[in-house]
Write a structure and sequence with these properties.
By secondary structure, the protein is of the alpha+beta class. It is built from 17 helices and 36 strands.
Length: about 725
């Protein structure tokens, strides 16, 4: 390995030692539990390191392998249902031989394997059918193991010591693995079989399947994750295993996912491929949404980020705010409840700061990683205030805003008191925890912030988009203060925002690059790099109109725009690499924010260019699911986008990009207090000639809308209206 790579290697870098791209995976998630399988429905974590069933950052099952005799079945098909409720796998047999004779020809036995996840339990059902004309005797083996690896171990971190594995206990039709961690917690995995296997050993179950012509049989097993907080130690003694209800669990999963749609509008287009992208995005939002004591929270992504992240949750809520404002309310409630109350260097926390991430695994509990409750994010705090303002605009829910107003004021105090580390008037970050994140913006890999010659920037670092977020946060808070009757505070915040805007323009603009600098380093030197970060400045509204147009041109020329989307770093810059996590790849959420920035300044065609690029990309991705990121190579005619090896899929803010992109092109704004839906200079690209939005909720009213693309504009008709809500088109 080159010396430079060794020197700059990020401690939290996700190792890539196996081919996730070559061996496609299937994901299920429910609550704090998620599972990653290969396409057979199996888990082989030695071959693909991230496979497993996880609960709260611990892998409770590390091996699950179905065998027909000593052979792996032949795969026919594998998919996740459109609503993410169930994994479905069709398998068959290869030729089964006895000596020189084929006793069961290939394709005789069909196995339909279905999986669901409910309340920390994975239910696995095998429906086996003999399509042959003679009786078959088929041995089936299910292999299993549990390593209790912490997610950060799976990501590649090494530990000096681990806890103790307990003996495997077998009792009738069930077995149980156990592990006592260094944190003193007992974690157990129970596997229950129905019907009982012919033979049950510590690492496998054996069935002897006898099927006559046309006959079928059903075999099921349930894998339950049992963290100590759910299972008292007093129940360690083996008890007879009770049965389980696959159908009942499946029904509950479907009802839960269906109920998530109740307050959401229905969106239809005449483009079925676009509908596939949109419907998968909706399903991913519902799957990643996790109920917390404070309301629903969209966990960030599977497998590496299936937990609450402040920045990710806020941006996801902003993306889908018009579609489902309840997500924003849940995010605001959760982040207000977890707001830092005191200084803690290990957590990079100060009073009023908003959470970066929360973890519940063994390594986080022990402090081996700092992320149990970690605050090393420079942008989550102003974004929190921005989201509160946007939520109030969308809903008019002033009562809720009043309930979190003390938290919003504490966030604003943090920006003024702690956000400006060196007193230069800009909000910047400097790491206090030696084990925390070196870079604390959304591009948080170790090599993401650099100068024109490629040297890494030294802190404290003021990112361009963070100044824009602070500007927008102060304007949002000013509006909220006025609504709450504090005119003086509102006026002062608006004055502070304008002063910041002027200073930002004077300091960050790079005339020779036609864009805003990536950052200002600790020596007050600009990082003069063309990056997508500048597009976020447009999204937050800090840029002046003329410079906004120049930034848009810079981000849509061939150096920045790959054909699929805007790259994080423009081609030709010192550290540009289309395969680098933050230095040349395409991130869907990043593109959605950039497109919204374009539209804010009336640049609808440029915004639609991004929508078209990501739509085209979605056609090629499996399940029409946009991943966390993909490579930034130039688009080649007739070829698909190039995948990134360890990208999360689903990643919630990538899934929700489509909501913001659609809103952006339509110029859609919903004012809850005034009960008004406004379309400003609406635009539909050629591939979306017609669009319907039904049951769009504004307060207690709903409206059904039909939109049609014309050569020079978009026609909008109100099909049905229930309650008081106005619809206005501004051209």
């Amino acid at each position: 390995m080159p010396k430079e790579l060794i020197r700059v290697r990020d401690r939290f870098y996700i190792l890539s030692t196996s081919g996730r791209i070559d061996d496609r995976t299937r994901v299920l998630k429910q609550g704090d539990t998620f599972a990653v399988f290969d396409r057979f429905g199996d888990i082989d974590s030695l071959r693909q390191r991230e496979l497993g069933i996880y609960h709260k950052d611990t892998r409770f099952l590390s091996r699950l392998a179905l065998r027909l005799g000593n052979q792996r079945p032949s795969l026919l098909s594998s998919t996740i249902r459109e609503d993410n409720a169930l994994m479905a796998v069709d398998l068959t047999n290869f030729d089964v031989r006895q000596g020189d004779q084929v006793v069961i020809p290939r394709g005789t036995i069909h196995i339909f394997r279905s999986k669901i996840l409910w309340e920390a339990t994975c239910y696995d059902r095998l429906y086996i059918h003999n399509y042959g004309r003679s009786k078959v005797d088929l041995p089936i083996v299910v292999e299993f193991d549990a390593d209790y690896a912490d997610l950060f171990e799976v990501r590649g971190m090494e530990r000096a010591r681990r806890g103790r594995r307990g003996p495997v206990r077998i009792n009738g039709n069930a077995l149980r693995f156990s592990y006592e961690g260094l944190d003193g917690k007992l974690r157990r995995t129970s596997i229950v079989f129905d019907p009982p296997p012919a033979k049950l050993l510590e690492s496998r179950a054996h069935y002897e399947v006898w099927l006559g012509p046309g006959a079928h049989a059903i075999y099921s097993f349930a894998i339950k994750c049992e963290p100590e907080d759910n299972v008292p130690r007093s129940t360690q003694a083996d008890q007879p295993a009770s049965g389980f209800d696959y159908d009942g669990a499946a029904e509950k999963v479907i009802i839960t996912l269906r109920s998530a749609k109740e307050d959401e509008p229905e969106v239809f287009t005449v483009n079925e491929q676009f509908n596939d992208w949109l419907n998968r995005s909706i399903a991913d939002l519902h799957m990643m949404r996790t109920e917390t004591p404070y309301g629903p929270y969209p966990y960030a992504g599977v497998p590496w980020f299936s937990t609450a992240f402040g920045r990710d949750g806020i941006i996801t809520a902003l993306e889908c705010l018009w579609f489902n404002p309840g997500i924003a309310r849940g995010v605001l409630s959760y982040l207000a409840a977890t707001q830092a109350e005191k200084e803690n260097a290990i957590q990079d926390a100060q009073p009023g700061k908003i959470l970066h991430e929360a973890r519940g695994g063994e390594m986080a509990t022990l402090g081996e990683v700092p992320f149990g409750r970690y605050y090393g994010s420079i942008d989550a705090t102003p974004l929190f205030v921005m989201l509160a303002g946007a939520y109030h605009d969308r809903t008019g829910d002033l009562g809720f805003i009043q309930s979190i107003w003390p938290h919003l004021k504490r966030a604003l105090t943090w920006i003024e008191k702690f956000g400006d580390v060196d007193g230069d008037g800009f909000t910047e970050y400097a790491r206090f925890s030696p084990s925390g994140l070196l870079n604390q913006g959304w591009k948080d890999s170790q090599d993401a912030i650099f100068h024109k010659d490629g040297t890494l920037a030294e802190g404290p670092i003021a990112l361009c988009e963070v100044q824009a977020y602070v500007y927008a946060a102060k304007l949002a808070a000013a509006g909220l203060a006025r609504n709450l009757g504090d005119e003086a505070f509102g006026k002062d915040l608006a004055r502070q925002a304008e002063m910041l805007r002027q200073r930002f323009e004077e300091t960050f603009w790079c005339e020779e690059l036609s864009t805003y600098a990536l950052a200002l380093d600790g020596k007050k030197q600009l990082c003069r790099i063309r990056t997508s970060n500048a597009g976020h400045c447009l999204f937050a509204g800090i840029a002046n109109p003329e410079r906004a147009r120049r930034v848009a041109y810079t981000l849509t020329n061939e150096r920045s725009f790959s054909g699929w989307g805007v790259r994080t770093v423009a081609e030709g810059e010192a550290r540009y690499n289309p395969m680098s996590y933050h230095n040349g790849t395409v991130w869907p959420h990043d593109n959605a924010l950039v497109a919204a920035g374009f539209a804010r300044y009336g640049l609808k065609r440029e915004a639609a260019k991004i929508l078209a690029g990501l739509f085209d990309a979605s056609i090629f991705f499996e399940l029409h699911r946009l991943p966390e990121l993909f490579c930034g190579f130039h688009r080649r005619p007739g070829e698909s986008p190039t995948l990134y090896p360890v990208s999360c899929s689903p990643q919630t803010w990538a899934s929700c990009a489509v909501f913001l992109l659609l809103k952006t092109c339509l110029g859609l704004k919903i004012n809850g207090a005034e009960r008004k839906v406004t379309f400003t200079d609406p635009y539909l690209p050629e591939f979306l000639p017609e669009l319907k939005i039904n049951e769009l909720r504004v307060g207690d009213a709903t409206v059904d809308l039909s939109l049609a693309r014309h050569e020079s504009d978009v026609g909008i008709n109100v099909i049905r209206r229930r309650g008081r809500v106005g619809v206005v088109v501004v051209k």
